Amino acid sequence: MRREMLVMMIICEFMIGFSKAQLRVGFYNNVCPNAESIVGGFKSAFGHQGVQGFDVIENAKAKLESVCPGVVSCADIVAMAARDAVAIDDGFGQSHGPAYEVETGRKDGLVSNVELADRLPDWSNGKWLLYRLISAAHTIGTTACFFMTQRLYNFKEGGGFDPSINPSFLPELTSTCPKGGDVNLRLPMDRGSGETFDNQILQNIRSGLAVLQSDAQLMDDPTTKGIVNSYFETGASFEADFVNSIVKMGRIGTKDSSNGNIRRVCSSFN
Ligand code: HEM
């Protein structure tokens, strides 16, 4: 499992659904005392290329079901695994990201809707800003050339590239993702630092070295631009803000027993 995939999964998990569970750190301490360490036991799989993210979650779930059946939700396993993937700093991986405590107590959803997963909820109430900024989570991970095609070759009517790309970076991007080439090839989203959790992504964004268009666009909006710049001009801490944001995002749309349950396996309903 790629550790980056875990962080991606946490987003999807949180963006579907609209009710609220009572979350707290240490929710499983009494009911399944080893829940956190069992999820962490699967760290070795984070860096295992070729194994898909869902396998890691399913394996952790299977182990948890064998020791505490019907107790630990898949949504919480994803949240715990994402935390561990960000902070990993051992023989299995070196993200060196901030350690943070995850609140747990979410139930799993009873509805699976690909359209909802595709849509960012609550655009109007300020959460959109949170999603946009936390996309600096692209400090680790890769993107497929698929997501670069429009930016590199079809940005304007009649073709052409996104002029916000630094001219010195353009040849690098076009040689990795040539026109008509394999759209499944992948490149780091954080040029020069794709394996490490740090603020290089923000420096890259400021310098026209963003890989994804959605990251480059943070400089188009005065609010997001001001926040990006603040990490270099006022000493604001990206790590601290990331932790604050991901914890907040983890409270959005959680399920309780009125509209959720504990799945037996994470990939299907009970
Ligand atoms: C405006 C919101 C966002 C957009 C448009 C966006 C877009 C993307 C795209 C296009 C990719 C490449 C996917 C692929 O090639 O398979 C990606 C990957 C990724 N995103 Fe985002 N993202 C957003 C928000 C976030 C947030 C909020 C997080 C984490 C909290 C995040 C974490 C990641 C990670 C870790 C990957 C790498 C996955 C991998 O290496 O397999 N993204 N994102």
List the main descriptive attributes of the protein structure presented here:
270 residues; mainly alpha; Peroxidase, domain 1; Peroxidase, domain 2; 2 domains; 8 strands; 40% helix; 7% strand; binds protoporphyrin IX containing FE; Haem_peroxidase_sf; lactoperoxidase activity; peroxidase; disulfide bond; metal-binding
Summarize the structure.
With 270 residues, the protein is mainly α. It contains twelve helices and eight strands. The site of protoporphyrin IX containing FE has 21 residues, from helix 1, helix 6 and strand 6.
Written overview of the protein:
- The structure is a single chain.
- With 270 residues, the protein is mostly helical.
- It folds into 2 domains: 3-121 and 253-261, Peroxidase, domain 1; 135-244, Peroxidase, domain 2, CATH 1.10.420.10.
- 40% of the residues lie in helices and 7% in strands.
- The protein has 12 helices and 8 strands.
- The protein has helices at 3-15, 35-40, 53-67, 74-87, 114-117, 127-134, 149-153, 170-176, 200-206, 213-216, 222-233, 238-249; strands at residues 24-25, 89-90, 93-94, 103-104, 108-109, 142-144, 186-188, 260-261.
- The chain has a two-stranded antiparallel sheet with strand order 1-4. Strands 2-3 form a two-stranded antiparallel sheet.
- The longest helix is centred in the first third of the chain and has 15 residues, at 53-67.
- It is globular and about 55 Å long.
- The protein starts with a helix and ends in a 9-residue tail after the last strand.
- Protoporphyrin IX containing FE binds next to helix 1, helix 6 and strand 6.
- Residues 2, 4-5, 7-8, 11, 131-132, 134-135, 137-138, 140-144, 147, 212, 214, 246 line the site of protoporphyrin IX containing FE.
